[in-house]
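Each lists chain and fold; for instance:
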Amino acid sequence: MKKSVPFFLNTLFFLHIFLAFLVVFESYLEIPFWLQPLGRMHPLLLHFPVAFIALMVLLNLFRKQIDPTSFEKINYFLLLLTSFTTVLATIMGLLLSLEGYESELMTLHKWIGIGISFTVYAMVLTYLHKKVFQILLYTSFVGVVFGGHFGAGLTHGSHFLMEPITLAAVKKIDENTPIYTAYVAPILERKCSSCHNPQKSKGELDLTNVEAITRGGENGEVWLAHNPEESLLLQRVALPLEDEEHMPPDGKVQLTGREIELIESWIGHGADTEISYAQLNMEDSLKQLVTEKWLKGDSGKEAYTFDFVDTKLIDDLNNPYRTVVQKSPTSPAIEVAIYGRSSYQAEFLTDLAKIKEQVIYLNLANLPLDDNSLKFVGELKNLEHLVLNFTEVTNEALASLVANPKLQTLSLAGTSVDIAGLKYLKEIKSLKELFVWNTQMTDADISQLAKELPSATINEGYIPDPEEKMNLTPPTLIGERNIINSGDRISLGHKMNGVSI
C-alpha cells in the first residue's frame, strides 16, 4: 500500500491537470472519431465514484465501530480509489459532451461533475485536516445527489423521477379531449421525449410540445398530414431494431404495435392536434380504433394459447431485410415485417414456417409478391393483421387468405384488386377492417363492399373535398439546377397533385 501511494498521488495530479486543460480549452477542442468511444464509456464508469462516495460517507458515520488503525487504512485507500474513478468518469463525460450535447441540463450536470472531481481531490490533499475533510466529503455527497439527478434527466428525461406521480395526477380524459392530447402525446412523452426535449434535443428535435414538433429537426418534419407512409416518425419506428437510425434506439422501451397503429391512423386522418373523439364521425377508422383498442383496451381479447418461441430463434430470423419481434414480454405473439423490394427472396417469407403458429402480424408492403406467395401466408393460422400494400397480388391471391381463420385486418392499398375479389373476401368471416384506397375499386364498388361485408370497416383513405380550400406551401422549382441566371426560363410545380400555378 505504502509503495503504491506515490504512484496514485502522481497519477491523480496528472489527471486533474489534464481535466483542467480540457475545461479551459473546451471551446477549441474537437474530438476525433477514434477517441469518441472513450467518452461513451462515461455511463459505464460513473457508477463507481457514486458508490464509493456513498460508501465513504457510511464508513465515516460509523467510524467509532471500527478499529482506528484499520479505519485509517480502509478510508485512505477508498479515498484514493474514489478520486481516481471520479476524475476518470469526469474526463470521459467531458469528452462525451463535446460530441454536441448542448442544453442547460447538460451544463449543470457537467459543472457539478467537474466540481465533485476537484472536491474529492481536495479531500486527498487535506486528508490530515479532519474537519476540512469531513466538510468536503459531505459536500461531494450532496453534489453526487444533484449531479445524478441531472444526469438521469439527460438520459431519461427531466421528468423521469416524478413521472409515476405526475402521470397518476393527470386530469381525466373525456370524449372532448383532443386525440393528440389524450393518446398521441403521452406515447411521445413515454417513448421519445427522453432523447428529444429542450435539454437533450438529439437531431435538433424536441418532441415535448406541438410548437417544437411543428418546427421539426435536422432531418425535416416529424410527420406529414394524411401521409403516414412518408412520415419520418413512422419510417424510423419501422426500421430494423439493429439499424442505427431506428427509433427509439435499441435498449430503450419500444413503441407497441397498438401505439404505432394509433399514430399511423391519426396522421392518416390529418394529424389534427385539436380534433377530439366526440368530433369524429362514427364511420371514421380513427374513432373506431380509439374505441376498440384504447377505450375498451385489449382485456376483452382472447389470450393466446400457443407457446413462446425461443429468443435465439427470433434472433436468427432477424436480418437487414426482415424484423421479427415478440409483441410484448408477456405475449408469445410475434410481429413480422419484410423490407427491400430489390433484395427480396422467397425465403424471407417461407423461413417463417419455423414460427408460423406465433405470427399474428405480417407486413409485406412494397414487395414483388405474386399470387403463389400468399399460399404460404394461408398457413399462418393465427394471423390477425396482413399488409399487402403496393404488391402485385390480384383477386385470385385472396383465395389463399380464406384459410386464415383469425384474419381481422387486411390492407390492399395500391394493388390491382377490384370488386371481383369480393367473393373471396366474403369467405374471411373474421375480417373487421379492409383498406382499399388507391385500388381498382370505384365508389359503387366500395358501397357494395360495405353492403356485402357488414361486420368490416371499409377504409378508402383520404378523399379530398373539391370544394375545400387549403393553405398551400410555396411552389417548387422543377428541374435540377440550383442556380438561375438572368433570362433563364423556369417552371414551377407543386408537391400536391392537382394544384394549378
About this structure: Residues 168-295 form one domain. The chain has three domains: 4-156, 168-295, 311-459.
